[in-house]
Design brief:
2 domains, Glutaredoxin
Length: 148
Amino acid sequence: MNKFFIAIIAAIILIPSLYAGISSTLYTTQVEWHNYQDARAMDSTKPIFVFAKMRFCTTCAAMEKDVFTDPALAKILNEQFIPVRETINFMLSSFVFDDLKDNKGEQLTFRGFPAVMIVRGDQYSLSHGYKSVEQLQTLLNKATNKVD
């Protein structure tokens, strides 16, 4: 009889904590960010997704807070892309994306922040400005040839 009560008490204590651990794992998908150099060095057929920001950019911070915290978007980025987040500092002499050239063969330049970019080999598509979750999902679906 004592063992029965101990088992019931243990179940009452353990089951909610096990459920909480499982449910938090299922619902707190986060983007697994890399830096650009590491992403380029990976042997992967996945395209590279780049989120380029500047340190004091409030729009960039809003995207990080409102967009990249979306679990469904994080899942897409982690499974179908190599997600990269880079803080651009124009004061540095070496530029992170120096391997990418525009149509004229000149070094890639950003015209505003935030910027998102899809990189495949030496080809890239670049988009500037705030993107909502829906806008970013559309862009990612186009990059992987999935149209809703």
